[in-house]
Amino acid sequence: MGKITGFMEFERLEQAHEPVKQRKTHFREFITPLNPQQAKKQAARCMDCGTPFCTFSCPLNNVAPEFNDLIYNEKWEEAYRVLAATNNFPEFTSRVCPALCENGCVMNYTNVAMGVKSIERAIITNAWNQGWVKPEPAAGSREKSVAVIGSGPAGLACAQQLARKGYAVTVFEKNKRPGGLLRYGIPDFKLDKSLIDRRIAQMEAEGVRFNCGTSIGIKEHPDGVWSDAERVIDPQELLRDFSAVVLAIGSETPRDLKVAGRELKGVHFAMEYLPSQNKINADEAAHKEISAQDKKVLIIGGGDTGSDCLGTAIRQGASKVLQIDLGPKPPETYDKSSVWPNWPNVYRVSTSQEEGGERAYAISTTEFISNKKGSVKGVKAVRLEWTSDPITGRRMKKEIPGSEFEIEADLVLLAMGFVQPSEPVLKAFGVQTDIRGNAKAAYEGVDAFKTNVPKVFAAGDCRRGQSLVVRALAEGRRCAEAVDKYLEEEDNL
Ligand SMILES: Cc1cc2nc3c(=O)[nH]c(=O)nc-3n(C[C@H](O)[C@H](O)[C@H](O)COP(=O)(O)OP(=O)(O)OC[C@H]3O[C@@H](n4cnc5c(N)ncnc54)[C@H](O)[C@@H]3O)c2cc1C
């Protein structure tokens, strides 16, 4: 513990954000990391409580009390080593993670949580600036090869861990560049893509090979699944050529809204819209360019993907943006004594939502309305009443009679979540699915990450369902351990 009385002396300091008016005019990042003096003071707030709920709350089990203490004592390089020991890519999580660790922080229970995320960002920013982040190639080769399918956070973390153990790892990715949703889903203003390029260069120097523009199993991906694939490889070929195969294909099948008028022009899935802007920013040819400029935009879905659409539409110059949710508005406050250290259902305002647009709740869309040219000009909707079943506590919804109304919109973005990984790809491997259509594999135990198909493993969103970057990283790391164990056991046999 750096400073025994730190938590009583210092207030939490947020990282500086570029003012809304300026940041709305560009697609670049707009948050400035804490400087070393600020980080030191913030690190002093850590109480080093006997039971580090921050560590347990983080899927990567980041050791925040340790790096806080090191930062307070100005041991920056050691702090970086502690951070990197549990997290392959802290520059990603320190930008896009909702910070489950901060929610679990004991100070959050009675006061204001530690700024773990901002300290993490200061550590990794400084580490890159100082040249401490270097390739860490394996000492020797294991003479076994692993194919990782998918280059999102799960695939990247898994590939890096295995390469550092000496395996010959090839990452296959259907899109033009590696990164998965980090690259083509999350907008540039939340995560600058040069950070991914820098990591890919590090991984290549560690021996990882990237085979992009290559789809495994299927050439044509359904609507709403972005694909730049130029070639297809048969799964049987990978099973023949590699000692193990890891499926890290994400959960890309979007939830659709199959009501009348769905086929109209101007109705798009979020993952048709967001990649097109990220590609334009990167000077990559986007085969679908969708712009919100001068349009009335309706975003259906109140979650983070919807919020990313909102920030993007505002930057593109939308004339109006409305984000609607089926669910009721979450409460503004919550009872910490009954929820902490678990994640609360509470009203939140994202940085994009700070920038403009409106939000509305408990609304169900019943029809898309067409103009004379077959383009969308609005939707029909109805208001919902939400109640709880008195016995089971389950939330129930019913339409409020007579509450039908229309919303004008000439661009409608469907951001209602993702239902499952690509079924044809799993089928092509013969991988069994669970009740939700995810690749069936355990998270723990002797069979962790193993699918029903010998030598085929699954990790990340394709195993657990659409989730968070931090969870995908944790899955990738743990899956690498499972693959390593499996290949070692094979050797012993
Ligand atoms: C718009 C959006 C914004 C988000 N924002 C955040 C955020 O701010 N913070 C956060 O924590 N989480 C966020 N998430 C969730 C997070 O991005 C995911 O949970 C995470 O990326 C999952 O990682 P993954 O590696 O399992 O899959 P993905 O990142 O989805 O990567 C899977 C990769 O597999 C490739 N692939 C699929 N099929 C094939 C095939 N047949 N052959 C070759 N390659 C294939 C895909 O092209 C893709 O690159 C967001 C999600 C979305 C959709």
Automatic annotation (TrEMBL):
Family matches, as Pfam families: Fer4_20, Pyr_redox_2
Stored PROSITE patterns: 4FE4S_FER_2
Alphabetically ordered keywords of this record: Amino-acid biosynthesis, Glutamate biosynthesis, Oxidoreductase
Domain 4Fe-4S ferredoxin-type: 37-68
GO BP terms: glutamate biosynthetic process
EC number, as in UniProt: 1.4.1.-
Record-level Gene Ontology MF annotations: iron-sulfur cluster binding; oxidoreductase activity, acting on the CH-NH2 group of donors, NAD or NADP as acceptor
Pathway per the UniProt entry: Amino-acid biosynthesis
Gene3D superfamilies, per the entry: Alpha-helical ferredoxin (1.10.1060.10), FAD/NAD(P)-binding domain (3.50.50.60)
Top-level EC class as recorded in UniProt: oxidoreductase
Keyword NADP recorded: no
InterPro entries: 4Fe4S_Fe-S-bd, DPD_II, FAD/NAD-bd_sf, FAD/NAD-binding_dom, Glut_synth_ssu1, Glutamate_Synthase, Helical_ferredxn
Protein name: Glutamate synthase small subunit
Source species: Parasutterella muris
Lineage, highest ranks first: Bacteria, Pseudomonadati, Pseudomonadota, Betaproteobacteria, Burkholderiales
Gene designation: gltD
